[in-house]
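Before drawing any conclusions, I needed to go through one protein's amino acid sequence and its C-alpha cells, quoted below without any editing.
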Amino acid sequence: MDAIAESPPEEASTIADRVFGQLRQAIVEGEFAPGSKISEPELAARLGISRGPLREAMRRLESTNLVERRPNLGARVITLSSEQLLEIYLIREALEGLAARLAAERMSAAGIADLKELLAQHRAEIARESWQAYFQKEGDLDFHYRIVQGSGNQRLIGILCDDLYHLARMYRCKFGMVSDRARDAFKEHELILDAIAERDGELAELMMRRHIRASRRNVERRLATATTTQPRTDP
C-alpha cells in the first residue's frame, strides 16, 4: 500500500474514506492474509497519517466484517471457517438468484447494453490469460455487483453489496479467480445475461443459482484438497 498524504483536520473524514478503501482492497486481494494482525501504530506510520482517521477506517472495516477486534489480541483480518464460507455461498445462491430475476424485470435497455459491454471486456481479459483466470475488479466492473444493483431492491442491495460483498469477494479472490473454472464461469455469466436480456426472470434466477452453486462446489473441492495436503503434525 502507498502512503497517504496528511490533510487539514477538516478533511479527516476524507482521509478515513481513502484509508478505508485502500485497506479494504488490500484485505480482499490478500495483501493482509486472513487471521493476520493489524498494528494500528505501524500502519499509521506506514501510511503517514494520524491515528484518528485510521481508527475511523478500522471501525468501518469491523462493520463490514473484514476485521475483528478481540480482547488482548487487537485487530485481525477476519478468518472464516469452511462452514461459515459455504454458508455465505448458500445465502448468495438464494439472494443473487432473486436479484437476477428482478434485474430481468427491471433493468433498463441501457443497463443491459452496458452489462453486455462489460462481459465483452471480461472475455478479452480472460482470453489474454489463456482462459485460466477470471479476475473482476470491484463495484461496477463486477458482473455480480452490477446485476444486484440492477435489481432495484434497496434491501437486497444492502445485504449483498454492503454486508456480504467484500467478504465474499475476499474468498472469491482466494479460491475462484485463477482456476480451471474460468471458462465455465464466463459461459455461465453469458447464460445469465441472455436470460436477463430476454426478460426471462425465471430463467435468470435459475441460471444464477446454478452458477453460484457450481462456484460453491468448486470451493468445496479446493477446501477438501487443502485439508488433505496439509502436513500432519505430532500431537
Remarks:
- The domain at 82-229 is CATH 1.20.120.530 (Four Helix Bundle (Hemerythrin (Met), subunit A)).
- The CA atoms of residues 108 and 151 lie 10 Å apart.
- The radius of gyration is 19 Å.
- The longest helix spans residues 201-229.
